[in-house]
Amino acid sequence: MLKEKIENLKKQFLAEIEKIKPSEEALFELEKKYTGRKSEFIAILKSLKDLSPQEKKQTGELANNTKNQIWEIIKNKRQEISENFFDAEKEKIDVTIPGKKKSVGHFNPISLVRRDIEDIFTSMGYEIADGPEIENEWYNFDALNIPKDHPARDMQDTFWLRSQINADGTRKDADNFSMRSQTSAVQARYMEKNKPPFRIIVLGKVFRKEATDTTHDHTFYQFEALIAGENVNVGNLKFTAKEFFSAFFKQDVNVRLRPSYFPFTEPSFEFDISCLVCGGSGCRVCKNGGWLELGGAGMVNQNVFVSAGYPRNKYQGFAWGFGLERLAMMKYKIDDVRLFHSGDLRFVKQF
Ligand code: FA5
Predict the structure, then answer these.
(1) Is the dihedral of CA 201, 202, 208, 210 positive or negative?
(2) Which of the four pLDDT bands, split at 50, 70 and 90, describes residue 249?
(3) Ligand 1 center to residue 42 CA distance, Å?
(4) CATH architecture of 109-348
(5) What is the pLDDT of residues 118-167, one digit of tens each?
(6) Can you give the residue ranges of every domain in the chain?
């Protein structure tokens, strides 16, 4: 009777192991089902004690053999699974199947230029300063000695925040927040909290109410430099600029200063560099002049120092402000400033 049960269990086991999909988990479950503590098999072994010694010996032997066979079969199956798993023949890799291309992100050229500038200036001992993009009238205009009636303050040029504009379109006088129109706004913010000597650069977004064209956008980046101390002169400005541009364009660049006007610098200059295409001899890019116009610069107006709380005529300093896009346009030969903020991936992917 018990013998029959054992034989049946074995048949059942053999049928089942043929059917299962071999896996570690499936084999474990099978082993538990047929030889585990709560299995029928163990129940049979326990009931051997009720048999006669002769039967106990025979049936016990059969039970043990069968259990061992089951274990052996399971062990072999396990072996098969692990061999299959590592079987290089079965795991052939077809190296000719085209791979899945991982798309890699690109830095916008503005970021590339910004990183270059930060590297060059930090290696010259400059600090990187920052300020808010929503700025009040004091920092953006007043502290910079810009007269109340200066056209840059007009709604035609500056984006004043809606809450600062009356229903009839005129400007409210309180607070007067706007989207900052120049990184020069950070000059006053920094000077308020720091005393000379210092050297800083500011790189950030500015906003102007512009009719856009190939060289003008309504949102663009400026790169400001400001240095103040007791012995700063125009020679320092020119030397620093020449060092910077030569490192930035990786070629010897000459710098030219032309007289200009900014309320916050005195004297003020328009800043030109020798044409990168012809080296200064004259070509189509520089319209045969040999020079390319880059931005404004000058010696810090003493009124700006006084606004920041410094004594008049104790310190001198120089400052400049360039368009970052214009620098990137020259470096990478880009012919339209509006491409930078277009969000067109075909543009960014070229860098
Ligand atoms: C200024 O903004 C001054 N704050 C610069 C300055 C700083 C002078 C410190 C002296 C001392 P300006 O408005 O010229 O100056 O602008 C400076 C540069 O920003 C320009 O030469 C140009 O490179 C860039 N720029 C001006 N307007 C635009 C625009 N709409 N789109 C792209 N770049 C512009």
Answers:
(1) positive
(2) very high
(3) 90
(4) 2-Layer Sandwich (3.30)
(5) 999 999 999 999 999 999 989 999 999 998 888 877 767 889 887 666 77
(6) 2-89, 109-348
Eight-state DSSP code of residue 309 = T
Asked if the model's pLDDT at residue 350 lies above 80, the reply is: yes
Ligand 1 cavity residues, CB under 6 Å = 182, 184, 208, 210, 216-217, 220, 222, 224, 262, 265, 295-298, 319-323, 325-326, 337
Vertex 30 angle, CA 26 and 32, to 5°: 120
Contact between 174 and 136 (Cβ < 8 Å): no
> To the nearest 10°, the Cα dihedral for 73, 74, 77, 81?
-170
Nearest residue (by CA) to ligand 1, atom 28, is: 216
Q: Over pLDDT 70: what percentage of the chain?
A: 95
Question: What residues does 320 pair with on adjacent strands?
Answer: 225, 297
